[in-house]
Every structure is written in structure tokens, then in C-alpha cells.
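#struct-help
A.M.: can someone run this one for me? Single chain, 383 residues.
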Amino acid sequence: MKQAIHFGGGNIGRGFIGELLVRSGYEVTFVDVAETLVDEINARRSYDIEVVGSVPKTIHVEHVKAINSNVNIEELLDAFVTADIVTTAIGPNILKFIAPNIAKGLARRVGKNETPLNIIACENMVGGSTVLKNFVYEHLDDTIKDKVARCIGFPDAAVDRIVPIQHNEDPLLVKVEPFCEWDVDRTGVVGAEPQIEGLTWVDNLEAYIERKLFSVNTGHASIAYMAYLKGIEDIASAMKDEEIVAFVRRVWAETSELLIEKYGFDREKHAAYIRTAEERFKNPHLSDAVTRVARGPKRKLGAKDRLVSPAAQLMERGKKPEALATVIAAALHFDYADDPEAVEVQSYIKEHGFQEAITHFTEVPAGTELFNLILEKNAALKK
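D.P.: on it. C-alpha cells below:
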């Protein structure tokens, strides 16, 4: 069998990337530091995935094993020599911690095997593989950097699958939604593109990253901030509220216009993508607390993030993002006491006022058309 190394034996690793690799004919070696998890995978060499939705099903995954990178480093380095692909799903903040071991693994590999190898970071971030590559290169000896550059690719990826917070009796069982998307930038590949079921090689990854960010993430945040103002506690309940559903559809109408105009997405296919997003949020098995989806308003109000970026881009194109401006105003009212960012935003508003807070958190200059629109929508929210 083809060999895959996957960093991160958690729910996303097992329930998404690992399963697609096994389905595509790879034996998957999960790399993790959780001793109990590693031992359990090695004892069973298999696990189950429950796909939750209107038609639930169970997928039995075999051809898996695991390495504890804290204990069996030599076994991991040897695995790099024969690997056909390397993937990660460990969280953006952990990439720098696995970089030294990847660098050692690549040093051992290129000394014995110059066959091309691609390393794909499957993280909820932009440019994850490039970030990982930069960390790895910090740990490579200068004498092998040219050879690594020639043999090893780090193509960036965009991934999307809801894996809800779960507590299962079986420590290896993972519950996932039916939908999954894995888009990878073919311009970063070295050698032939690995053929993996469920993975789409794309020429313009930015288009797919923005499609997901401005559709799934923007929609999710919009539902959460509007639901919070109405005192609704979870997303599935919010999706039973006709006002909220009508509102998020207006948000999607705005972001859809932007995405279709900017990237040339097919209108019918994009409409189907939005309908799928709506169904995903209605799935009661995946329902998340409104406060968890809304958390981190400072980050979500950032100029390059899911709310302000599409609103500003629409303004540049002469369009008025009425619904998005409403969400931006609503996000500034998210005052959940257990969220440090929400507390910070509310403290700033208390000290400096709402108008200064708009510019401080969104970087939208005072007096601009978008700024005035946010103010106008805020006044309407308060009625």
C-alpha cells in the first residue's frame, strides 16, 4: 500500500483527512503525543466514523497505525523515507512544534530517497503549508535546503468539515457531518499530483478560501451574532427562526454577488453551495452554542476577516452591503462575559464610545460610506 504520515490523531485527523487517505489506498500512520490515543490505534488498527445527518451511516476505517513522536522518534524518521504523502490537522498554533521533527525526517529522506513528496497542512488557516514550510526550513541544514526544495512540495490547502465537540464512550469513534471539502493548490506540488478521493486540485486556491470564508464562516457568524441579540442559545434553534434565516440569506446574497463577480463562480453551482451551507447549519446533530460560534469578536471584526472584508470589497464595487453592515454592528454588541475578546470590545466601547470602536476594531475610517452604513444599521438594531 501507499504510505501516508498524518500529524494529529484527533477527531479531524481521523474523521476527515485520515479516512479519505485510507479510502484512496493509503496506509495511514497517525503521529501524536497522546499516549492513550496512540496505544488504542495500535491495539485495534481500525476505528469507526459516524456520519450524522438525515441519513446516518457508519464508516469502518482500517489500515491505520500510530507513532508517539515523544517516544519513537526513530520510527517516525524512518517513516519519512518511504512516505508517499504527509498531512497535518493539529491546529495552526502547533505547526511550529512539529517542524523540527519534519525537518529531521526530510533530512533522512533526501539522503536515501529523492522521489517527490508533498506535505499538506490541512488547517483552518490561510497558507498553512507555506507557514509550516517556513518553520521546517528554520531547522534544515543549509547543505540540504536545495535538495529539499527540489524534492519536497508544500502545497497550500483549504479544508471544510464540521466535527462537533463530542464525548464518546469509544475513544476512537468520531462523529462528523456528511459534507466535506478539501481544495489544494496545484501550483505548490512537486512531482505528480497525488490522487486522493475527496481532494480537489485547484489553480486559484484564494478563490476557494474566500468562497468558504465569505459563505460558511460569514454565514455562521451572522447567524450567531443575530441569534445572541435575540437570546437564542444554539445554531440549530436559530435556524428555526424565520427572521434569522431570512436575514442570513440576505447576507449570502451580498457575499455571493462579490464572489461571482470577483472569481467567476458559476451562479447555479454557487447557489447550490449556499443551500448546502444552510442545510449544514440546520443539522441538529452538529448544533453549536451561539456563544461558541460568536466568540472572538475582535478577530472576526478584523479588516481581512469574514465580515468587514466582503463588506469593504462590495463598497469598492459600488454595492451597498446592508446585511453585512448589520452583522458588523451586531458583533460590536456581543457582550458574553466568558469571552475575553468580547469583554475587551465592550470595555473599549464603554471608554471610547461606539463610533471610535468601529474604526478601532474594523479599520473602517470614520466618515466613510461603510462607516456611516454601520452606524445607520446600529441605530436600527437598537430600536
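A.M.: thanks! Residues 206-382 form a domain with the N-(1-d-carboxylethyl)-l-norvaline Dehydrogenase; domain 2 fold (CATH 1.10.1040.10).
D.P.: also worth noting: The chain has two domains: 2-203, 206-382.
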